[in-house]
Design goal:
Layout (H helix, E strand, L loop, with lengths): L1 H4 L4 H7 L1 E5 L1 H9 L3 E6 L5 H12 L4 E3 L2 H6 L9 E6 L4 E2 L7 E5 L5 H13 L4 E4 L9 H6 L9 E3 L2 H7 L1 E5 L5 E2 L9 E5 L14 E4 L11 H17 L1
Parallel strand pairs: 2-3, 5-8, 6-7, 6-11, 7-8, 9-11, 9-12, 10-12
Antiparallel strand pairs: 1-4, 2-4
Length: about 240
C-alpha cells in the first residue's frame, strides 16, 4: 500500500503517470473511460460495490478485495466510500498538439476542487480543452479529480503560454471589474476564456486580450470561479451556436 499512498504526492503522480481515485461514481467513470488499472474494493460493502467489481472483472481489470483501512490509507479523505481505483492519467499535452475552437484557460487557480469543477463545467458546456498555465494547481490532485467528476480524465488538458493563446484566437479574461458585460462580448471562435483565482485573478499578463464581467448586485464583490465560468461558457456557446 505504500506505493499507492505515495500517489497522493504530485511529483510521484507525475513520475508514474498514475493516481488513486475514490468514490463509486468516479471509479465507475474511470472504468468506463478505460483508465482503471486496478480496483480496490471492500467486501460486503453493498450491491453497488459488487456491481463495480463485476464490471471490472468483465473488463479484465484486476480486483483486489481489501479492508476499509486500506481504502482509507490510499485516500485523501477520512471516510472514503468503499471503493478505489488506480488510474492511468491522460497527461497534459502542449496546446500546439490540439485542434481547438473553444478553449478554457486556468490561470493561477490554487484550489484543486475549483480547478476540477472548472474542467467539469468546460466539459459539460462542450469546450474542446482546458489549458492549465504555470502556477496553477495540479489537475490530477485527488480533490481536482473528484471535483471534475472524472472530466479531468476525459477532456484534453494542455500546457500553454498566454502569448501562444493570444496568437491563436480571441481571448476574454474573466474579471469582476471587466470592461465588457458578458452579454455583449463577441465569442466568435477560436476563442479562449481565462479564469484566475478569486483572490487575485489571472496570474499572467494577457497582451491584446479583453476583460469580461458578470454584473453583480450591490455589495457582492465576486462570484465563485465555477459559477462565473458556468455563466460565461454557456453564454459563449449560446451566442455563437444558438
Amino acid at each position: 500500500m505504500r506505493a499507492l499512498r505515495a500517489l497522493l504526492d504530485r511529483r510521484e503522480r507525475a513520475r508514474r503517470g498514475r493516481a488513486v481515485v475514490t468514490g463509486l461514481r468516479l471509479v465507475e467513470t474511470a472504468l468506463r473511460l478505460g483508465r482503471a488499472e486496478e480496483l480496490l474494493v471492500v467486501p460486503e460493502a453493498g450491491p453497488e460495490v459488487a456491481r463495480l467489481a463485476q464490471q471490472a472483472e468483465e473488463l479484465r481489470v484486476p480486483v483486489r478485495w481489501v479492508s476499509r483501512r486500506v481504502v482509507e490509507a490510499v485516500s485523501d479523505v477520512k471516510t472514503p466510500q468503499p471503493a478505489a481505483a488506480v488510474v492511468r492519467l491522460p497527461g497534459v499535452v502542449p496546446l500546439s498538439r490540439l485542434r481547438w475552437r473553444w478553449l478554457v484557460v486556468a490561470d493561477g487557480l490554487q484550489d484543486p476542487g475549483n480547478l476540477g469543477a472548472l474542467v467539469r463545467t468546460a466539459h459539460a458546456a462542450g469546450f474542446d480543452a482546458v489549458a492549465v498555465l504555470p502556477n496553477t494547481t495540479d489537475p490530477f490532485h485527488p480533490r481536482a479529480l473528484r471535483g471534475s467528476a472524472g472530466s479531468c480524465l476525459a477532456l484534453p488538458l494542455a500546457s500553454a503560454t498566454p502569448e501562444e493563446i493570444v496568437q491563436a484566437g480571441r481571448v476574454w479574461v474573466a474579471d469582476p471589474r471587466g470592461e465588457v458585460d458578458y452579454r455583449r462580448a463577441d465569442y466568435a471562435p477560436p476563442v479562449a476564456l481565462v479564469f484566475g483565482s478569486e483572490a487575485s485573478g489571472a496570474r499572467h499578463r494577457w497582451p491584446g486580450a479583453r476583460t469580461v464581467r458578470v454584473p453583480l448586485a450591490a455589495g457582492v464583490e465576486s462570484l465563485n470561479v465555477t459559477a462565473a465560468a458556468a455563466v460565461l461558457l454557456y453564454e459563449a456557446r449560446r451566442a455563437w451556436t444558438g
